[in-house]
Amino acid sequence: ALRSGAFWILAGIIMLSAFSENGLVTNLAAILTEHRVSTQGAALALSVRGGAGIIGRLCIGFLIDRLSPQRIQTFVLLLSAIGTLILAFAGTSPLALIGAAILGVGLGSEADVAPYLLARYFGRRHFSVLYGLTWTAYAIGGATGPMAIRHWYDRAGFYQPRFIVYLACVAFVTVAMSLLPVMT
Q1: Nearest-angstrom CA–CA distance, 118 and 66
Q2: Vertex 63, ends 61 and 65: CA angle to 5°?
Q3: Residue 161: exposed, middle, or buried by beta-carbon count in 10 A (0-12, 13-18, 19+)?
Q4: Which long-range contacts link 153-159 to residues 24+ away (Cβ below 8 Å)?
Q5: Which is it for the CA torsion 70, 19, 111, 96, positive or negative?
Q6: DSSP conformation class of 124
Q7: Please, which residues have CB within 8 angstroms of residue 45's CB and are 6 or more apart in sequence?
Q8: For residues 80-119, b (16+ Cβ closer than 10 Å) or e, as one string?
C-alpha cells in the first residue's frame, strides 16, 4: 500500500483538506467579526457549521453505500472549497450562514469516506496501520493550517480575504487530487 499512488493521493487529500478546513474554522469567528459580521452572527455561523456537519455526515454515510465513494469524496471536498470561498467574502450574517452551512456539510465528511476507501483499495489486513498513517497526515495538515493563517494575520495585522482565498485554493487542489485516476 505504501508503494501505491492511491495511498499517497488519499493521504495528501486528507492533509490538504485538514490544512484548509482547520485553518479556517479555528479562526472563523475572528474572521467574520473582522468582516463586520456581528458576534452573534459569527457564533450562529459556527453553530450552523456544526449542525450542517452532523447532517452532512449522516447523508454521506447513507450515500457511500449507494454511489461511487470517489465521486462522493470529490463532492464533499468541493463543498468544503465552495464554503471556504464564500466565507472569504462573507460580510453579512446571511452570507456567513450560507458559507458555514456549505462548509459544514463537507467538513469532516472526508473522515467518513477515507476509511471506506482505504479498506476498499487495500483490504482490512493492514487497515489499522494505514488508517493511522492517513490520520497522521490529517494531524499535520490540521496543525499547520491554523498556524499558517495566524502567521499571515500576525504579519498583516488583520484577516485579509486573500488569506481565506489561499485556503480555498488548497481546498480546490484537494478536489483536483480526488479526480486523479487511482491505481492500487
Answers
A1: 17
A2: 85
A3: middle
A4: 153/27, 158/34, 159/27, 159/30, 159/31, 159/34, 159/35
A5: negative
A6: S
A7: 28, 29, 32, 37, 90, 93, 96, 97, 99, 100
A8: bbbbbbbbbebeebebbbbbbbbbbbbbbbbbbbbebbbe
Give, for all 184 residues of the chain, the pLDDT tens digit.
888 888 888 888 888 888 888 888 898 999 899 989 999 999 999 999 999 999 998 898 899 889 888 888 888 888 888 888 888 888 899 999 999 999 999 876 777 888 888 888 888 989 999 999 999 999 999 999 999 988 888 888 888 777 777 777 777 877 777 776 655 4
Amino acid at 145: G
Question: Residues 154, 56: contact at Cβ < 8 Å?
Answer: no
Report d(CA 154, CA 132) in Å as an integer: 33
